[in-house]
Amino acid sequence: MPTASSTATSRRLLSLLSLLQVRRDWPGVVLAQRLDVSARTVRRDVDRLRELGYPVQAIKGPDGGYRLEAGNELPPLLFDDEQAVALAVALRLAVGTGAGIEEAAARALATVSQVLPSRLRQRVDALEVTAVEGAARGVGPQADTRVLLDLSAAIRSREEVRFDYRSPTRPNDMGLHPPRRVQPHHLVVRSGRWYLIGWVPEREDWRIYRADRMTPRIPNGPRFTPREVPGTDIAAFLSARFKGSANANAWPCQGEVILSLPADRVSPFAGDGVVEELGPGRTRLLTGSWSWAALAATLARFDTEIEVIGPNPLRDAFADLSRRAGRAAGSRLDGSSKPDPADSVAR
């Protein structure tokens, strides 16, 4: 029967090992302070880790200290609850990355799941996530692991979720309105961000929510009968919604132009557009955007001559953009603008 003393020692060893894995060098005095023990106890615990196969090296110097070196063999790994769940979530995502490590990640996930305590295994097994490709994005707000696990559990049990949602334009309004009620269907990770795809009965429509902006309410709502996402392809559905399209995975505003640039200078910035080389210094580009104004502005960023093939709304957007640019160029320092005779006639 484990004693209270042996349990405390085991926990302290786990804490010591976690600290040694965080940074390369640790002064002995700092480790003792972090663990709230004496320097002598730290030395004894280091000896115990060495007996378990961990290559902990002593660092010589005025302060002295310890360093966890890489070994020739993999010793037993120790994780706290949060680390174990994080590892299992990462492996589950790696299975669907398409990076060529799917089989190895699946085997590693099976191995980790076998040794997880039942309380943690149930949480990890409940996590159902779809990974889809998206444009690269910098590190942004991170979703809480507990929120992800709660959402995944609700998806599996087919229960409505209730949550407060922080608006990007009114972040302080969260909690001032009734909680949202959504039938959760898919938990998706795209470009490093987590999204919940769900059906909103009050709106009779699908909605997409960022998980890092959600604060779940307890308890969940009633059970529901799942419905199919339009098109049944989660990746295509999500991509369509990000393009502002209700169903088809296509931009609502698409245009075709000829740019006075070689194709190799257009392709890196064409996104999902279609690039065709017409000859030296001439490239055809078929692309789209949320609106005609946004499409015209995006094309203007190529900083070259543009010939619009069609359609007419794109030509109109360029004309409007030209008028706005002219007014901006004529703006005075006092905020007023010089009238454009041509513009007044056009009115």
Automatic annotation (TrEMBL):
The protein's name: Transcriptional regulator
HTH deoR-type domain sequence ranges: 9-68
InterPro entries, alphabetized: CBASS_pafABC_assoc_protein, DeoR_HTH, HTH_11, PafC-like, Tscrpt_reg_HTH_DeoR_CS, WH-like_DNA-bd_sf, WH_DNA-bd_sf, WYL_dom
Gene3D superfamilies hit by this protein: Winged helix-like DNA-binding domain superfamily/Winged helix DNA-binding domain (1.10.10.10)
GO MF terms, alphabetically ordered: DNA binding; DNA-binding transcription factor activity
Top-level taxonomy: Bacteria, Bacillati, Actinomycetota, Actinomycetes, Mycobacteriales
Annotated Basic and acidic residues bias: 335-347
Ranges for region Disordered: 327-347
PROSITE patterns, A to Z: HTH_DEOR_1, HTH_DEOR_2, WYL
Keywords associated with the record: DNA-binding, Transcription, Transcription regulation
